[in-house]
What does this fold into?
Amino acid sequence: MLGLVVAILVADLQLASEAPLISVALLDDARVPHEWLRQARNELDRIYREIGVELVWWDPTSCSDQATVPRHLLTIAIRRNAASLQKKLSEDAIGITSGTADERGRVAYVFYDRTERFTPLHRGKYLGHFMAHELGHLLLPQYAHSARGLMRAQWNRDDLERAEHGQLKFTPEQANLIRSRASQLAADSRNAPK
Ligand SMILES: [Zn+2]
It folds into this structure.
């Protein structure tokens, strides 16, 4: 009986360690208050861990040597507002993924000013959800918006309330797609020639 319990525990551990790892860099150009940034990262970690993907934070200031940059590094850049990107975006766009040749599929922008209309109490949490949505665009096929959940194109009061309670999530189908894309990237990174 004990053997069985141990076997199940080991199987569980193996399952946990098999979660694909995704390297993510955070560029905070908006000087977000430290506490909110910490909350945002925690939310982002939690949202992805719940669908079986582990985020590994890579500090872009840690080393200037290009050789140490993880292969398939995904970048989330927090900008104060959309103005610097010189794009026409709708008033309530929370972010955008880059379409330029060298950034396509690798860089997502999130606009910090879109969180400022909310009570400071939840700003870090919302920011984390905005980041999770935009990172989702980098990992999902094109036109990834859905009628419900974290990938809704526009969020209403109900969605924000769900976010406050940690209930705004990817749909099961999106979770599968993200997990398999993450596994693909992780395997490709492992197999890359050194
Ligand atoms: Zn979107």
